[in-house]
Structure formats: C-alpha cells, structure tokens
Write a structure and sequence with these properties.
The chain has 26 helices and 25 strands. By secondary structure, it is of the alpha/beta class. Among the domains are: 84 residues, no CATH class; 210 residues, Rossmann fold (3-Layer(aba) Sandwich); 154 residues, Rossmann fold (3-Layer(aba) Sandwich). Helix 15 packs across helix 16. It is globular. The N and C termini lie close together (9 Å). The protein binds flavin mononucleotide (FMN). The site of flavin mononucleotide has 26 residues, from helix 7, strand 3 and strand 5.
Length: 862
Amino acid sequence: METNALTAPKNSSLNTSSNILNSSQKPQRIFRFGSFEPDISSDSSSEYIPNSSFFQNSIGAAVTLAKSPFTAFFGLAAAVLYYIYSNTLSLLNIEARDSSKHKPKDKPTKSPSPFNLFEMEKLDLAVIATIIVGATTFLFRKFIFGNHILRTNSIPTINIQAAPKIAQHSYDPQRDLSFKMFQNNQNVVLIYGSQTGTAEDLAKRFARELHLDFNAQVLIVDPELYDLESLSKISPDHIAVFLVSTTGEGEPTDNMAKWYEALIGEDIFTADFSDLELPSFVDPTEESDFSGDYEFDTELPLANLNFSIFGLGNSTYEHFNLPTKQLTKRLRSLGAKLVGPVGLGDDDVNIDDDFEKWTGAAAPLIAKFVSSSSTGIDSSPNKYEPSFIVKELDILPIDASIGSVRPEILENASSINISHVDSKHPWYCLPLNSKVLTHTSSERRIIHLELDLDNINLPYTTGDHVALFPTNYETQVRLLLNVLNLDGSKPISLSFSPNASDNKPFPHSISSYSSMLRHYLDITLPVPKDSIKHVLLPYARSEPAKAFLKKLIDDKDYYKNIILTPVMSPGELIQNIHTIEKKEAVSDDLKFNFTFSALIDLLPRISPRYYSISSSNLESPNKISITAVVLNYKTPNNINRYGIATNYINAIHDTLSNPDTNSDIIFTSDKLSYCLKDTRKHSSNNFAIPIYIRKSTFRLPSDPSVPIVMVGPGTGIAPFRGFIRERFYQAKNSIPVGPTVLFFGNRNESKDFLYKDELLESFAALSSSNKNSKVITAFSRDQKEKIYVQDRMTEHSALIWDLINNQNGHFYICGDGKTMSKDVIATLKRIAQNEGKLDETRASSWFTTLKNTNRYAEDVWA
Ligand SMILES: Cc1cc2nc3c(=O)[nH]c(=O)nc-3n(C[C@H](O)[C@H](O)[C@H](O)COP(=O)(O)O)c2cc1C
C-alpha cells in the first residue's frame, strides 16, 4: 500500500436502512410467480424464458402449488377421505353422486364396494390416480428428480422488501447471476468484495485455477452489478465462492456494501449472532469439511446455496476480517451450506501464502461439488487460453502524447456523468499546483498537491478520502514493450475471447500497447506462483525456460529469493527467461514467445489509492488537496523500488514545476520517467487524473465550539490540516471556535515540519480566541533521546483530560495503525487513569464510552 493511503473510519460506507433482515426475524416466504427460473437440469441449449406473462405466471403458480408440501398433504388426505366417503355411502346404500347424469335410468344401481376399482367411475379413478401419483411424486421427489426440482419450488427468496434500497429495481436478467451461470453453462460463481483490487485479482486467478486444474466453469461476479436475491436461485449442484476484503474499520468494501447491508443490517458492530450455529474458524491447512454437519432446511431462503469463503484482512486492525466472519454466520443462518474451511487471510503477514493454503484445502472440495477432478500441471484438462483477443489496427499510430491520457477521456470527456462519480466512473481532474513540504536535505519527500474541481463541483466534506488512479512510470512500460517486441504506439482493439475467464471490460476498447501499460495494468507487482503456472508456463517451449518456471512454482525458497525479495516486476521476470534461453543457446523456434493478450491475464488491473483529503470544503469547495510521502526504497539486495501512486504524484509536481518543458517525457527528481504531457494542458478536454471521492465519518464536531485534540505525526497530519483550515476559516468569519490542539511529530524540525508556516499562522489566530489552542510538536531526532507524540501527550495530560473529559471534546488519531495509534490509545488510557483517578478497567470503559459516543475517531493505515 502506498504511504498515506488511508482507512475509512467506522461506518463510513454503510448507508443505513431501518428495516433490515436481522437474525431474529424469520425469513418471509415469497413466491416468485413473476420471477425468472432457469431450469438448470435442462440442456444448456434450451432457452431460459422469463415467465412474466399472465399465462406463464398462472402456470408458474400452478406448478408451484402442485409442488408444495401442503398440496401433497391435502391431496393424500382428499384421496383417503374420498375413499372413506364413497364406501360409507355404499354401506348406507346411498349413491355417492347424482347418478342420473352418468347412468341410464333403466340400469339397476350398483353400490361401489371397497377396493373394487372396476366398479368406480372413470373420472373418479382419474382424479384419485392423479392425486396419488402427485403426492407420491412429491414425497419421493429427491429420488425421482435428484436435487434439481428443489430449487425451483419451495425456496423463498431473500426478503428484498426488508431492504428497500436493493429492492428499488425491477427484475433484470443481466443482474441475475444464476441466469448468467445458466446462460454460460457455469457451475461456480466467484463473488469478490474488493476496495483496493487484491480480492478482485485473487478472484481472477482462482477462476483460472478452478478452470484449468479442476475443469470448473467459473463466473466472476462484482456484487455491485448483480442482485442479491439471485443468490437463492443458484443450483444446489453449484457453488458460490466469496472472496471478501475488509476496509475502513471492519467494514465491507464499497462494491459489497449493498449486499452486506441487506444481509447483515446497519449495525454491523453490535448485531447479535449469538443464537447462530458458528462455524469454527480453522487453519486452512488442517483438513476439514463442513459439509457433513449440516441439516438441509428447505424453509430457509438460501437453503440451496453452497458456499466457500475466504476473507482478506489485516490483523493489526481491531476488527480483523469482520465482514467475512459475519457473512459466514449470516449465510449459514439463512440456510446456506458451508463447504470447506473459512479462510482468514492476513495482509500483515502474506495474504498470498494464506490464499494458497486455503485454496489447497478448498479447491478440491469445490471441485467435488461440481463433480470434476484432476490436479497437477501436466494433467490439466483445460488448456490455457487468454481472456482477451488483441488485434492490431490499421489506423494511424497513437502518438506518445495521446497515449499519455487514458483513451476513454479523449472520446468521453463531455459525457462523463458528474452525479455518478465512483470507482467505476472516475472523474478526470486537472492538477492546480503543488509544493514539496519537506526540506531538500530531508530523508523523505512529502508533496502537497491541489486538484481542481472547478469544472464540476464534485461534492466533498472535510475528512473525506480521495481515490486516485495512478499512471505507471515509463521504465517498466518500455521494458515490457521491449521484452514482448511491441511498438507502443500501435493502435489495438480488445475483445473477449469466447472462453474468457476474465469478464471485466476495459474502459475503452481501442487503445495502444503503451496506454494499456501506462493506465490500466499494474506492471510492477511480482507475479504470483499460480500465475506463473497457469499463464507463463504454457508459453515455455524450451527445457531451460520450463525448468526455471517449474522451479519457481515448486520451490518456495527459490520463488522467495528470485521474485519476492527483489520485488521483481513482470517485465524483469520475462527478461530473465530470455536471458536464461540466450545463455543456453535455445534455438529461435523454441524461444519463449509471450503475447500481449496473455500479459493482460498475467497482470492485475491498476487499482485506486486512497488519500485523506487535506483541505476544507468550507474554505475551498472547488479544490481538494493531498499530502503524500513519495515511497522509494531499496530491497535487501540493494535494488531501488518505487511506489506507483506517490511517484506519480511526484511526477505531477515535477511536471507542474517545469511548465516550459515541451517534451512528452518527464523525468522526476528520482530519475523516473513519465509520459504526462497532457496533465499540463488546462483545456477542458484534456482531463488528466482519474479520481473519485470516498465518504468517511472522520468528521469535525458539528458544533465548532466543541474542543478537539488531534494526533497526527508524519503524513497523518493530512486530514487535520483540513480540520485546522476549517476552524481557522470559521474564526476569521467570527464564528466562535473551541479549543483546538494538534500533536504533530516527525524526524527533524528544520527538515520535516510539514505546513509549518500556515500552522503557525492558523494557531496564532485560533489561540487568540482560546488560549488552549496550540500545536505541540515532537521531533524525534532533534535530541539524543527520541521523543514521540505520545511523550508530548503525557506532558500535556491535564490539558487533554480537561478538554476531552471535562469539556466533552473529541479525540482523533491519524497515521500509522501498526504501532503509533496503539501507543497513542494506551497513553490516552493512562491519562484517564492518572488524571481521572480511574483504575485500569474503568479507564478502558471510559475510552469505550468515548468511542461509542462518537467522540473518538481514527483514520489509520497498516
Ligand atoms: C483503508 C483500509 C482499511 C482496512 N481496514 C481493515 C479492517 O478494519 N480490518 C481488517 O481485517 N483489515 C483491514 N484492511 C486490510 C485489507 O482488508 C487487506 O489489505 C485486503 O487485502 C485489501 O483487499 P482489497 O485490495 O481487495 O480491498 C484495511 C485496508 C485498507 C487499505
């Protein structure tokens, strides 16, 4: 993660719905006469016809009723009663019917006797036979029809009325994932919740593995694009695999939020799941199969759903993998059957390792469900085929300057819908100005960048986050063009291949090789082992190349030394294969011949990076600012590596500071080259930086007179710069502003005092109206003994206690969540013990009350 790519604070992404489906409610039974029912048991070539007409509805109703247990029960009862009734009549010598309609008058009447079928009327026989056959069919339906029939009858949908926000649409087959699976003849659906792209990439990779190694047909689903209720219609022979990331403070990702809200409800932290049967959360390496401990209850809305689940989280956060745990419990309580272990991936260690362990245990079980088998590289039943077909076009080459902007901007600039700016529809804004906040002699370079919202008035609130899609630097772009022997300016078109496993389109179908590599693909992340196996290995034709790649796949330490430790980029890996083949004098016809379409499968998409907005919407509604430290580091074997997004921000700064340079290529202070020419053009058609705003709940108190204490060392100052600008602006406009205290820390005062001048100016004004307003600094390396913000807090214990406890102030932390925020919380609790004379337990509950009353908020990153 880039430095200062931040968390959204508690509850930021969840809109609330008062009418939720909670665990204590019995799910309502809803018959779906107007809904669409694929017959999964039928031939895939048969049509999937919506039964929405009156006729179809009536048939649907009749079929549903005929299949219901009540009908079967009453049918049997009616047959028995009819039989008793007929025989009672015969004993009393009374005709059961008005026989005059059926029999000739002159024929003597015979009374029917028990079991004498031949003496019964044909119609009676037909009715009884139908009822008995119907009832018997229902009772033995499992043996007769297998499981298929179950899914089309008594399974109520999830009660969408209980979640009004997701029920605001009419049925759309394009949003029905069971329909999509039926159409494509797929038996596994991979549903991912992803904020910064990791789960999305794992979904793409796992789909490939399930297809190539286990012969599964997999649909990848972004839940934002599908309706939750279609989950209940997945065939019981199929399986849904959830890959669920955690964001903010234990929250679901934006693309999962609506499903989550409908399933879990608004109160994600206090929802009571104690009455539910809990799955054990296990080490995925242990062999376990949860499928056996489960009772099939057809009354529950998700009774037909089989699911596996892997969570992505980070154990340094308080709510580790919370959405995954809650979702697992909830799905089970709705009747879904858990297959395989629950995986809880930990980004603090290595999420790829956790995922590999989990897939090792889960993939065979998932495969069992879709009745396939086979493992191993050489016995793959399916051959790898790239998802995209790339065609070179015979039109004029796309020159370097056009390639510097995302292609969709040039065509769609005027049609971008401002009311709908989000991760799938970013807004392209211009950089306004920038400055370096640290001294040239500082070990770190921290940039302040202002982005222009003037054209659109994109609404934001002080404390929100801005997400930014970076552009890759040229060194890696050109390396890839070079190793694939491609002309970067060549225009290309992209289309899905018939068996595409990746189903996410790019924003524009016509591009150039360069612009694909600059704007859409992450070209710096090391290639994971499974991608080496599934995508690179099939292109190895020479023995040395095969041996090298197989060793990377099979030998953990070798992979670590060659790929992970030096953080080897995909371009460097391909270059290495070429070098090995050259050394071994491999003949041309056997040389590794990797294609651009396969490269698209090999690489994750470029994901947005989140930054706390460091401006105030009161003071500057038409521009937002970012405060970012440029991330450069050396690997243990002394190779320079560069963070994509922060170096991009640095490049924008360098571009803005050299307005007269006319070159397409910009060299940054770190000698990285970028193609950013159009970022300098302030014309309405040449927007440059794709962004969107992510709402947060990291907010100033609504009453400006309420005291605030902020702790934000390093770039943790970002949102507080916005808070302080806001209070300064209010003070200048004669609005009474309460005590405002900032604890700021960094290495050296002379080099790293971020925003020094404006902070001193703001606090001069703020302290003139309230003597308690002040900035308190901790420069760790300006003296022999290191001093940190928490040491300064201890020195100012009385002030903090007075403002927070006695004057009901608000306390905020922003910055490193691994150690700093934990130390600051511990210090705050100690202050409560010392100043408030509370014992340890009471100090802890004092802090909990602070949190529960929304007077404590944190915006931290791990
Ligand atoms: C802004 C942010 C907030 C996070 N909050 C949590 C959290 O509260 N609990 C947790 O277990 N992990 C948390 N994580 C860790 C992520 O879940 C983990 O890094 C995951 O791999 C991200 O997946 P994604 O890229 O698919 O969104 C957070 C990560 C980020 C970037």
